[in-house]
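Render this sequence as a predicted structure.
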Amino acid sequence: MIFIELTPQVFTLILYDYEPFSHNKKFTWLDCTHLQGVECYCDKEGAHALKRVIANYPADGIHFIDSGNYHYLTKFWTDKIQQPFSLIVFDHHPDMQPPLFEEMISCGSWVEDTIESNPYLRKVIIIGASENLIKHVSPKYRQTVEFYSEQSLQHEASWKQFSNETIDTPVYISVDKDVLNPQSAVTNWDQGSLTLNELEHLLSIILKHEKIIGIDICGECSSTLNIFEAEKGTQLDNTANQELLNLFLNCQTSNL
C-alpha cells in the first residue's frame, strides 16, 4: 500500500500536486493540511491528531511524508510495529539532537525519541550523515546506533562493510532525500553528496538481503520557493521519488 501524507505548508502550495509520480489512483492520500502544532516541532495535540489520521493504516506500506520538517512521522509509523525490528535511516542529519522542548518531538530528535520509547527497536543504522554532526551524538547511543557517514561512503571499504552487514531482524527503511546531492533532489535542508544511483545501490543491497516491514520517504523542496525554483525542485524530486518508488515496487514484486 502506498500513502501520500500531505502535511501543513507555509503557503497553500501542495508540492505533490506538481509531481506526476503521485498522480496514481491506487495511492491513498492522507490530508493533514488542516492540523496545527506540527511544523518541525510536534506538540501533544498535533501528535494525537496525526496518530488519529494514520490509525487505520499499517506500517507495512510505502509512505511519502512531505518535507524533512515532518520526518518525525517515521516514529509514529514505527510505533505500530509489534515485533523486534531494526531501523535503517538514510539522512544527511542523524536526527538525534536533544529536544529543546521535553514534551515535543521534532524532525531533529525523532531517532533519539524512537530509541528511548520503542521496546521492539533492536538496532538503528544511519547512512549518509555528516561526520561533523555524528560527533555530537551522545555516546550512550553508540551500542544501539551504527553510522555509515557521508565521508566514509567515499571509500570502497565502507561499501564492502555495508554489503556484509548482518541484521537479524526485519527492517523499516526511512529515506530523507537530503542525503542526496543538489543535482539529484531539492530539499529544504542542507544536503549531502550521494547521487541517486548510489542511494539506489545501497537500498538494493538492503532490499536483496533483508525482510522489509515498511518504508517512508521525505525531503520535498520548500513551498516558499519562487515559482521557477519550485518548478525545478519538484521536477528533480519527482524523478527521485519515481525512481525510488519503482525500485521498491520492483523488489516487492520479485519477492512475491
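Summary. The helical segments are 44-53, 73-78, 110-117, 131-134, 156-163, 196-209, 227-254. Residues 7 and 32 are 5 Å apart (CA to CA).
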